[in-house]
Amino acid sequence: MGNPKPKPKPDPSTPPPTLWDRSRQVAVAAILDTALRLFAERGYEETTIAQIAKEAGISQRSLFRYFGTKEDLVCGDQEALGELLKNTVDAQPADASPWDALRAGFAAVLVANHTPERVLQISTLILDTPSLRARSIEKRLRWQAALVPGIEARMGIPSGPVPDPRALAVIATAFACLDTATELWVRTGGNTDVTTTYDQALTAVRTTP
């Protein structure tokens, strides 16, 4: 996991992005750059979609083609990230422990869309903005619920109509340790290692009497 690292090199077997894909990526990056600059200058709550669109040189209608809401500018496509997390966890070897599988999933999500510098900027904004932090908590709860069947299977627990409390506890504990590591990383301006802090927190929870 570590501090969020640069994205890995593209898989040569994956088709290269189309011109439309590249154009969209450039537009999304430009809009996000503008939005984050305005949020830093004026505050998240005080900055409107109209102001962002004007500064970015596009119409509000065009902006909404890329981002459905102002929160999406910061939080990204939560459904896609949640799917990436679940798919990565489920794709881990059958003999991988629930803890190792979740750790691999977190590592994938941390580097999914942005550079480490951008992740730090966005994470700081989320932690310092109550409405964004609330949105982040809602997201985590949805992600946790989606992970339950896979973690139950790794624990040898038959899936039923009601989630098993043991699987719920493992998932919630892993997320709490990730939140602890991420917040410390943000509060130190990126000067701590996310992996080290996550492992320390998880070890403490699992071994403290």
Fold and architecture overview:
The protein has a domain at 71-207: Tetracycline Repressor, domain 2, CATH 1.10.357. The longest helix is centred in the last third of the chain and has 25 residues, at 130-154. By secondary structure, it is mainly alpha-helical. It has ten helices and no strands.
Under CATH, the topology of the domain at 71-207 can be stated as Tetracycline Repressor, domain 2
Report the C-alpha radius of gyration, rounded.
Answer: 19 Å
**Which structural class matches the secondary elements?**
mainly alpha
Quote the distance from N terminus to C terminus: 27 Å
The CATH architecture of the domain at 71-207 can be given as Orthogonal Bundle
Estimate percent helicity: 55-70%
Q: What about the largest sheet?
A: none
The helix tally amounts to 10
**What is the 3D shape?**
globular
What is the averaged pLDDT score? 88
| Percentage beta strand | under 5%
H/E series: HHHHHHHHHH
pLDDT < 50 stretches: 5-11
Report the CATH C-level class of the domain at 71-207.
Mainly Alpha
Give the beta-strand count. 0
CATH superfamily of the domain at 71-207: Tetracycline Repressor, domain 2
